[in-house]
Amino acid sequence: MLDHPGNVFVVSAPSGAGKSTLVQRLVASVADLRFSISFTTRKPRPGEVDGRDYFFVDEARFDAMVREGGFVEWVEVYGHRYGTGRAWLEGQLASGVDILLDIETTGALNLRRAIPDAQMIFILPPSAAALEQRLRGRGKDSDEQVAIRLKHARHELELYHAYDYLVVNDDLETAYRAFESIIHATRARKERMAQVAQRILQGF
Question: Which first-to-last residue range defines the signal peptide (predicted)?
């Protein structure tokens, strides 16, 4: 169990739901909110930087971290492993900042077990047809790949009930406002603000 002054936010969504756009804007706009950097065994893609996009490690290092309990959660996706480093996360949260983790549903559920008060947010597409249209519109996937992504999206959507907040990304601005409001509302929770209230009370 992690003891943490900062809040932990977990966001998941099917591929094509617009999660990356929302997450990038949120981290750029909201003070004291940092994006979690995962460890991965996959090779860097062009333009990716170690320590900024991911912590790139080999299989042996990843295995060692698993044995040593070095991950809060880890999963294997498409033959590569991804994990949230325990020491990195604890260090960030201890400084009082909030951390936003962008992880798929299996990893999100594992993290919830490790951090029960993590706030879980799921980004929904407006419909199956809209998601298919977005995937085809990107022009990156074959018909077969689109079909695989849609099948996986259905599997992910079946887990929506495990999340605390559901945001439909139909209109980007509306979705962003809902996403941002979750962060601010969580920060204002009584459990988080009790010490501040006590300090103010003592001044009377």
Answer: none
Name the burial class of residue 82, with classes exposed (0-12), middle (13-18) and buried (19+) by CB atoms within 10 angstroms of its CB: buried
Q: In degrees to the nearest 10, what's the CA dihedral of 123, 125, 126, 130?
A: 170
Whether residue 112 has pLDDT greater than 60 = yes
Q: Kindly state whether residue 50 falls inside one of the protein's structural domains.
A: no
Token pair of 62 as six digits: 């990843």
Does 19 belong to an annotated binding site? Answer: yes
Instruction: Write down how long the chain is.
Output: 204
Residue 17 assigned to a binding site: yes
Q: Are 123 and 12 in contact (CB under 8 A)?
A: yes
Q: Which residue has the tokens 């909110």?
A: 33
Six token digits for residue 68: 């040593």
Which domain covers residue 157, as residue numbers? 8-36+97-202
Say how many domains are in the chain. Answer: 1
| pTM of the model as a whole | 0.88
Residue 164 inside a domain? The answer is yes
Binding residue per annotation — 18? yes
pLDDT of residue 79: 87
Quick one: tokens of 117?
Answer: 């008060």
Judge whether residue 68 has pLDDT over 80: yes
138 neighbors 28 (Cβ within 8 angstroms): no
Is 15 annotated to bind a ligand? Reply is yes
Residue 156: give its domain's CATH number.
3.40.50.300
Task: Say how many Å lie between the first and final Cα of the chain, rounded.
Answer: 36
